[in-house]
Amino acid sequence: MPRRVIKKIVDSILGALSAPGYEAVESEIRSFTVGEEPFGLTRWQSAGPDVDAAWQELYNNTILRIPKNQAAQLPNRTYPIAGDDGYYIANLDVFHQLHCLNMVRMALHIEDYQHNAWELEDRHVSHCVDSIRQSLMCSADISVNVWQWNEPYNTVTGYSSQAHQCRNFFKLRDWALDHAIPEMIDLTQHLTDDLEWPNKNW
Description:
It holds the Pfam family UstYa. The chain is an alpha+beta fold. The chain has a domain at 3-28 and 42-141 and 167-178. The protein contains 6 helices and 6 strands. It has a two-stranded antiparallel ribbon with strand order 1-6. A two-stranded antiparallel sheet has the order 2-3. A two-stranded antiparallel sheet has the order 4-5. α4 (93-108) crosses α5 (122-139). It is globular and about 65 Å long. It starts with a helix and ends in a 24-residue tail after the last helix.
């Protein structure tokens, strides 16, 4: 194996070990809920104040405050926090994808979200759809859906409520809340930064 390939693999492993949130990663087996009629909707489907609150619980206040040594390990440069020397802004991508999925949900119920119409413009929602596509293809879940006889419909149908090998989402969410930026920050300041950042070409 070429030395440069080995170096990339080693760098990737070391980068993952020092990545924000790595210590909160915990595997679990979780069965998906169907969330279809007549079985009943999950609390994240449809529209309304209770549904909105359920979505906000998933990803609200998860913008991270990470130290300089972690920022230096990221494969892309991130920005320092104004007035908080040695700390940088970041967020785990799962929360961006949940934000995007929530935008798609709201766009499906646009009549209930006229007050958010500026967020639900086609360009933003289209970005969200493609971002979710890339995330799904990146993670490429290989849990196997099964097919069974469906007596009420008199046909064989696929079932997606089987067990999956997952990361414990709520442990990651709680970690992000514990490491979140504690208050609103000034995003309008253009700062110079001396962060030493590796030149990674991958």
